[in-house]
Amino acid sequence: MEPILKIEKLSHVYSPGTPFETTALRDVDLDIYKGEILGIIGHTGSGKSTLIQHLNALIKPTSGRVLLNGRDINESKQSIREVRGRVGLVFQYPEYQLFEETVRKDIAFGPKNMKLPAEEIERRVLEAARFCGVEEELLERAPFDLSGGQKRRVAIAGVIAMMPEVLVLDEPMAGLDPRGREEIMENILSYHDETGAAIVIVTHSMEEAARHAGRMAVLEHGTVALSGTPEEVFSHGEALRQMGLATPVMTDVADKLCKLGVKLPGTVYTVEQMVDALMALEGGRADAS
Ligand SMILES: Nc1ncnc2c1ncn2[C@@H]1O[C@H](COP(=O)(O)OP(=O)(O)O)[C@@H](O)[C@H]1O
Ligand SMILES: [Mg+2]
Known about the structure:
Layout: E1 5-14, E2 22-32, E3 37-42, H1 48-53, E4 63-68, E5 71-72, H2 77-86, E6 87-90, H3 103-113, H4 118-131, H5 148-160, E7 166-170, H6 178-195, E8 198-202, H7 206-212, E9 215-220, E10 223-228, H8 230-234, H9 237-242, H10 249-259, H11 271-288
Parallel strand pairs: 3-8, 3-9, 6-7, 7-8
Antiparallel strand pairs: 1-2, 1-4, 4-5, 9-10
The site of adenosine-5'-diphosphate has 12 residues, from strand 2 and helix 1.
């Protein structure tokens, strides 16, 4: 399968030639496929935010390229405009970027910039509000009037209103309570499931990544240290621990059980999978007896 976005030997150096010079990314190769959910994990400072800001040409590679359907996104003004419409980027704490006087205007900002006809803008505002669980009665309210979770959903709706083929989110659940985290994740998943868009999600939570991502990339010191399915990534428990990243609690429990001689079938990283594995074990014993 051809990737929709291809990151090739991407390096990024901040403030080159000054005492503040920082190499944030070095020689990163990573592909993003149509319709997949890719989780990006890594310690603070590992380069996650720098990496994803390259995906819609918000910042430019120091060297290397980002290709959208085989074409360098930084090739021309035209290619930059195109990628901005097709790859939507939700910043960390995006609610700080709400600035219009009503929720409706804030969600409409992106589609308006795309110069879409008025009725199409209206259709997209309502559609994006629905995906993000923003009730219609909120549309005429001022954004600053809303709760933290509501503001976050309005900000995400503003990007979804551009109907991106790739939706990229930088720690979209950060700072919310468990209920709020769950709701945001459901919003993102409903956009993914209904439109077939690819989702790239930066998260601190191994469980969240494992539960939802088909593939994960682990960044360390600006390089991709590990990538693959969650099972493949979590099979490198020691390497993850050395990077200061915890494997999911249930994966650790499964490891401990294994050392005690209880071998669970398959890889376990969520509570649900632990329950299934224990049930299967129990079933196996019942069959044997
Ligand atoms: N605007 C910037 N100017 C200078 N250095 C930066 C800037 N943004 C990030 N960095 C540095 O680049 C490295 C990677 O940061 P970042 O991409 O924000 O990582 P993460 O999102 O994984 O925490 C860090 O060393 C950070 O201090
Ligand atoms: Mg970051």
